[in-house]
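Journal club prep — side note

Before the paper discussion, L.F. wants everyone to see what a predicted structure for a comparable chain looks like in token form. Sequence:
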Amino acid sequence: MKPTGLPGGVTLRTPLPGDAEALCAAYVDNREHLAPWEPRRADGFFTVEGQAHRLAERLLEYEAGRLVPWLLIAGDGRVVGTITLSGITRGPFCSAYLGYWTAVDQQGRGLATAAVEAVCAAAADELGLHRIEASTLVDNVRSRRVLEKCGFRPIGLAPRYLHIDGAWRDHRLFQRILHNRPPTV
């Protein structure tokens, strides 16, 4: 996937093995901000070694075609967010799941919206996916607005869908149809 320019001089690009330190710093800096929206993490997650291990696993999944990770890199080299297509399925389903976050100091600048739009374009044009699914906690209004601005439509409510911040939480489900071409063989 080629790097893409986003608002505020941020670049969207796939990660490299050497990004573990910057990823670690981003997660440490945003630990409190992300806690209500993510699974609880072991302390090892917030170390360079933990991020190096996680990054290596994600890059293997990327090479296998099951996941595409991106980093949002500020002009100063800081990681200010991540966005991922996971669970990539080919054949008649031709779909993936979307997950993303942006740093607390990047909120309200249109960065998440621009990143989601760029990933949707790559999913359609480079990956040939038909559909992307995303979910938000029922009270995550900001994330829901991002999805709606990017053309995602609600498809239902999933009770106790994901274990977030220490409990099974209800989520709203959304999807975006990217195109109506037949799946590639």
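L.F.'s comment for the group: The CA atoms of residues 43 and 50 lie 9 Å apart. Keep this in mind when we get to the figures.
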